[in-house]
Write the structure tokens for this entry.
Amino acid sequence: MFANSVFALDVSTLADPDVFDACYQAQRTERRERVGRMRFDNGKRLCLGAGVVMEHALAFAGCRDKDIVITPQGKPTVEGCFFNISHTDEIAVCAVSDREVGIDIERFDRKLTESVIKKAFTPAEIRMAEGNPDIFIHLWTIKESVMKWFGLGLGLMPEHIDVQLAEGSDTRVTISDPNHPKLSSQADALRFTCFRHEDYHIAVCSTYENFADSITWISPP
């Protein structure tokens, strides 16, 4: 049995052409094709970095050589472990576990428009974040991690998730989605482990009270 872990990669390390090429050649065909479809250099690095950190996590879990299967809702899965990926700006992260997991990362300086705030957040959440934009990012990453834990794609939207922020793993969520009434009872078991790294906020959704104590930073192989 392996321990829950969160792995992270600063994708700026892939700006070196030799490092980029070595990592690119080590990826699965599907990941190389996705990288090739990216138009801009930063997008290529993020896409490749997601592959690098994912493969590192799968190797850690003993699942490196297993096939990745995509669910009808678009969530990648592997027999023998659970994992989830997120990336933004210059950081790619991957959480791996023996139970279902969702992860999201955002920069605190991400600008959320007024229309997005009114649509994605409940009135109670908006009042909670009044005067402190960082709280919106905190709430947003938790909502995204929940959506990714369920793996329903756009079948579950952030406005249906109500976050009650508290210290540590005491944060809870309720889900009120008329299209998925059974999600409400499942949400009772969800717990959240959050990390701050410089200007980034990372939220992990799982059923563990404490998913991991820290993030493990990796370098390109």
User: Anything to note?
Assistant: The two ends are 24 Å apart (CA to CA). The chain has a mean pLDDT of 95.
